[in-house]
Structure formats: C-alpha cells, structure tokens
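In this section we walk through a basic example: taking a raw amino acid sequence and producing a predicted 3D structure, encoded as discrete structure tokens. The instruction is simple. Fold the sequence below.
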Amino acid sequence: MKLIQLSSVLHFTALSSALTLPLNRRSPCEEETSHNAPLLATLGGSVFDVDVTIGADNQTFKLLVDTGSSDTYIMQDGFTCINATDNQIIAPEDCKYGPETYHVSSSYEQVPDQNFGIEYGAGLASGVMAYETITIADVTVRTKLAFADRSHPMGDGVNNGLLGLGYPSLTSAHPGTFTPNDTYFYNRAVYNPVVNEMYEQGLIEEPYFSIALAHTARDSTGAFGGYISLGELPPVELTSEFTTVPVEIMENIPINITSDKRQISYWAFTTPAVKYGPAEEEEDALVVDHTPFQLFIDTGNEFSILPTAVVDPVNTRFEPPAVYNDELKAYIVDCGAKPPVFGVVVGNQTFYHAPEDLIYDTGNGYCVSTLVPSEKNGRPVLVINILGVPFFKNLVAVFDFGKDEMRFARVSNGYFL
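The resulting token sequence is shown next.
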C-alpha cells in the first residue's frame, strides 16, 4: 500500500514452512472448484478491487487488492471522514468509498482490548478488530478483520476498504482500546492476514496466492482488471517459464516497525539490473545498469518508485523527454509522448513494462511518468524502492508465504482466457 504522499493529485501507497507442489494451471473441467476471483480496474486501470462477502447476512463489498500492506479493513456504518490536511470532519462521501458500509452481523465478535490503526501514504484509518466471516474467490474463513470508523479520503469511489496481502509482521492491530496515530507503525498485536489464515485452516490447498492484472484504457472508469487466485494460478496464457526469487528482509526498515524483530515484512527482493533505451532500440542495444538494489512489490501503488539513478535516465528517453516537477515529486510528460523501453531483471528473466503503462493521466489536464525517484519521495531517513501496478500488467506473480519466495512468468500480450 502507499507509503508516501506526493500531493492531493499524485499520492503513493505505503508505508512454519510448508512444501509447495509444482504450479499447475487448472483445466476447464476443474473450473467449478477453482478459487479465482476477477478484479475490477478503476481510475484508468491504476486501482484493482475484488468482490468479498462479509458476515452471516452476506454483506457484499469491493476491496482494494494490496500486496504492500497486511490488514483487511472495511468501513463501518456511520464512519467519520477526516480531512487529511487540517483533521477537520468532512462529509462521508468525501472519503470516496463506495456506498455500502458494514453493519454488525450475528457472526461479528469484537476482539477485546485491541484496536486497529494504520498509516498509509494516502492517509490514516482506525477502528476496532473483530472476528468475522469473509468470502473471497469462493473461500470462506472466520478470521480477524479490521472495521474502520475513522478514515482520511482513500477510496476510489467504488471500494469500501482494502484486502491486505502482506506478511503478518506488518498487521496493524494494537493492544488496548486506543493507539495514538503517530505510533501506528509500532506496538503491533500481530495476527494472521486473511489468506494466510485460509491456508492455516486448510481452506486452500497451497500456501500462496497469485495475481495477474489486465491492461485497461486510460479513460476507463470500471473495467475487467484480471484475477486474484488462492492456492493456484489464474486462468491466463503464459509465454515463459516461472523465474523464482526469495523473499528478503528489507534492509532499511527500522526493527521497531516489524515488532522489534529483524524479519520478513514486505514482498521484497533484490534486482541485479535494469535495462532501458529508446523505444525503437533492439534488446541487445539497450543500456544495462548492473547496480543492484532492493525493492518490494505493491499492487496498491499506481507508480513504480525506484532509485533516482534509474528513473532519471529512463525519463529523459521519453520523446519528448519527461521533466521533473519538484512540487509533484514526479516527472511531467506529454500525454502523447513516445515512451522508452524499460525492463527490470528478476531472477533469470527481464520483465518489460508495456509502453502505455509508463504514462499516468492525472485527469487534471496533464500526465506524469509512472517511474518516480524514491530518494525524493520518502521520509528523510527511510528510502524505499517499490515496483507498483505498471510492473504487474505484463506478468503473473505468485506470492508463496510457505516457501517465502515469489515466482513470475510473462503473459501473452496481456491476453486473458
């Protein structure tokens, strides 16, 4: 999820081992037992939501799919919307969540002496922790969920909260009935995120989930967005074998943010190189930057936030070149510009961004590059590199919390079966 906020227009989202069987795609005859859920793409294909059902009375919501955070939260009836600038109460509709909100069902059981509080780059959300049932991709589990009664504006006009898919160490339950909002990163009452709990209860066969994001038109307001699959692969056409990288401990995350333990928190790995050049360049003529750097994978982020030494030379290769804007902390680019080639090396493969994924239309009469500099957008003592939505739209990503590894394979021109 978003770690850092650039402006009111451009905001970025934050701040036991088991064997895994070989990955096998489901055959058509097995579709009735598959655990694939389609995604809805909103805001021009920059946000991806999934349908969930919650409670004994089957309340339905859409939640943002986010590998960059770990809590699943849903907005409650009568929630308070807070202006992120001056902390004044504003109209609930200004929070831009969908019209549905959660009301207590007969299966709801509040967790005593715990509260929920989380800080994203886009804002804060807080409330209570409770046991409740949730269904995703035809899998129903009773587990801990967060129910928010206060929030900054963070919706897309459709979703009602967020599905967190990160590691348990980043969950944001806190002991007691109140936690100051400047300490949400600390003093965590760690618990299992939803998909981890599904596996622990034997509801999915394998300890992983996979995601494939679809390409959508920049001006689309709601379109097919791909799939999330639980314990299996999504029904997409692959054009490569899977490459595998281990999940790493983030080297620059302060230990008190991850419950005072040096442990895995984000879906992080080290890329050994990036490749880039003019759009017409052949692959063997591309510039190859062999400087390795660590990053994490975030489906809740509209942008890829990477070292300045990487994004500066890439952004100069737009035709016409993108120009850095210090106020936005991003590179303004002509909406009709010709994007360069840009690829990230993962394991033994290079995954290239589709050209259209390198330009983001703000909807305010100008466009920006989706590659932004991490050193100029983070907190002074915490620089974090992120591969966001632009990276995801050309591959299937498998997140294996049993083996603590990620696997990636290319898709066929973004074509979905």
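Looking at the output, two observations stand out. The first strand starts at residue 36 and ends at 42. DSSP finds three helices and 29 strands in the chain. In the next section we compare this with other chains.
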